Amino acid sequence: MKRAEMHWTQENTIQTKERQIEHRIFMDNPLLAINNLRICFQQGEHSVEAVKGVSFSVNCKETVGLVGESGSGKSITALSILQLLPENAHYSGDILFANEALLDLSQSQMRNIRGHKISMIFQEPMTALNPLHTIEKQIGEVLGIHLGLKNRAATAKTLELLELVGIRNAKSRLKAYPHELSGGQRQRAMIAMALACEPTLLIADEPTTALDVTVQRQILSLLADLQQKLGMAILFISHDLNLIRHVSDRICVMKDGEIVEQGVTESVFSAPQHPYTIDLLNAEPDGEPEPLSENPTNLLTGEKIRVWFPIKKGFFKKTVGYVKAVTDLSLTINLGETVGIVGESGSGKTTLGMALLKLQTSEGLIQFEETSIDNMNQKQFRPLRREMQIVFQDPFGSLSPRMTVADIVGEGLDIHKLATETNREELIIAALNDVGLDPEYRHRYPHEFSGGQRQRISIARALALKPKLIVLDEPTSALDRTVQSQIIDLLRNLQKKYHLSYIFISHDLAVVKAMSHRIIVMQGGEIVEQGNTQQIFNQPLEAYTQELISAAFEARKQRTTPP
Fold first, then answer.
1. What are phi and psi of 516, to 5 degrees?
2. What's the count of helices (H) and strands (E) in the chain, helices before strands?
3. Shortest CA distance to 70 belongs to which of 238, 269, 278?
4. What average pLDDT score do residues 524-553 get?
């Protein structure tokens, strides 16, 4: 980290001075001004108004928070600034950046602004990053287009950026592809790419959604430090109103495409005016799962699970080492039990869940309902697949863009022959109702939904098959606190009704505490500590667990006290 902070090139200094001149020129005017912005999406003969007369501004060196629940229009508003919405989007109103009307610019002119003067950290890094290119090539492309850096200069700058955002062993990650990184590491790589040209305005769309509490603090601190160093303004978008409190100077609260309240951050928190703002402030996951029976039935057992990825080098691709994602890990899951798995990004949580469902090649013994499944091929395992479902961390990447919601939710029903022509539609509607989605949405496509709504579709797809075990990989990370509480209540009620078992993977300890009977703490692919939920939270034994609990407690404490 020190090396990355010290090595600022002469080009960086020149660019910073240019930005200081820009700041002085526009001192009397906002850097970004949005006036009466309306955005409609044309769908055949009908149009849907997603943004309804939004107006706000961002000043030089200022952080403005844009908050609201999933589907409120936050991301659509942000994407409109860079003209990144699909062709069926129709605008009215004004978007001024440094006194320049962005909606009047051609695509060629916008390309000179995107990534250079205005950068964006996207909500879903897996879909924003190119799966066919290495991290080095993708960041290097930005450096080449806007700064003219090539070859060794581009590589050196890319390495500096990766170290700057806290990616461990950054040099070894240069040649990595997005799928080889954890969710948190992909998010850091996205931040590095966004900061590559030291933009005047950074749009951060849920930049900490996929990160654990300790890494969240690091990223927020990093953005604050870089803002001071580079003199940039930040439009910080989040569904977590309490998180916004500690990073923003002013705040805008959105609901149903409109700004219902805005003002100086502390004024909004100390005296909120709108009922929706009050609901967001008071939302916090609580409660606990239904107690287990005294003699629960074992559902799944894993013994000495190992997932090591070989590192190959040289002309003959000789194996010179291994990335040890999961090492000799053993666990049991009972019928009707929720086992929470927590740990930092890259600790092996998701890899473990994928291995237990035979979605990732692994070594070790895996037994499901007294049947050994570790040596089964995919054809032999297929009849059991409906009993073991998964909700993926990245909903957009796991939903086919060519299928409607009805096709996505109904696909499993068709494959496992669980529906007839007469009741298929009824089962799909019931699954959508379970997750709080309007059944009329079933004829739409994934790109027409917000991140949180897509996550609900993923949950509905898993629930439709009525499985015995569901691996929930960050199922609430894209949801605002009010909806998180609803989803948690939903999952607990379904667990009680159908005696479901959950493997609940999350970086949000408040959510894990509300959902889990037992907790497994992972670090570096190994179990650091495990025990019942109350013991882990009240009397953690290991220093790493204590650090996680302390970070979560501090974050929660900050939500109820002024910054």
1. -100, 145
2. 23, 20
3. 238
4. 88
Q: Which two tokens stand for residue 406?
A: 């009805």
Burial of 553 (0-12, 13-18, 19+ CB in 10 A): middle
Per the CB < 8 A criterion, the answer to whether 119 and 202 are in contact is: yes
**Interval 234-261: pLDDT, tens:** 999 987 776 788 889 999 999 999 999 9
Owner of token pair 């953690």:
540
Residue 1 predicted with pLDDT over 50? no
Structural element, H or E, at residue 312: strand 298-313
The average confidence (pLDDT) of the chain is 85
Quick one: pLDDT band at residue 556, thresholds 50, 70, 90? low
Across 211-249, b (16+ Cβ under 10 Å) vs e yields bbbbbbbbbbebbeebbeebbbbbbbbbbbbbbbbbbbb
Amino acid sitting at position 187: Q
Burial class (CB in 10 A: 0-12, 13-18, 19+), 460: buried
What whole-number distance in Å separates Cα of residue 263 and Cα of residue 269? 10
CA atoms of 156 and 145, how far apart (whole Å): 16
Could you report the per-residue pLDDT of 339-355, keeping only the tens digit for each? 999 988 778 999 999 99
* Strand pairing category for 32-43 and 46-58: antiparallel
Helix (H, G, I), strand (E, B) or coil at 64: strand
Count of Cβ atoms closer than 10 Å to residue 85 Cβ: 17
| Dist. CA 521–CA 407, nearest whole Å | 37
Other CB atoms within 10 Å distance of the CB of residue 116: 18
The Cα–Cα gap between 158 and 558 comes to 34
Name which of 498, 496, 518, 499 is nearest 297 in CA terms.
499
CA separation, residue 323 to residues 57, 85, 172, 225 (Å): 46, 39, 11, 32
Question: Which helix (H) or strand (E) element contains residue 224?
Answer: helix 213-230
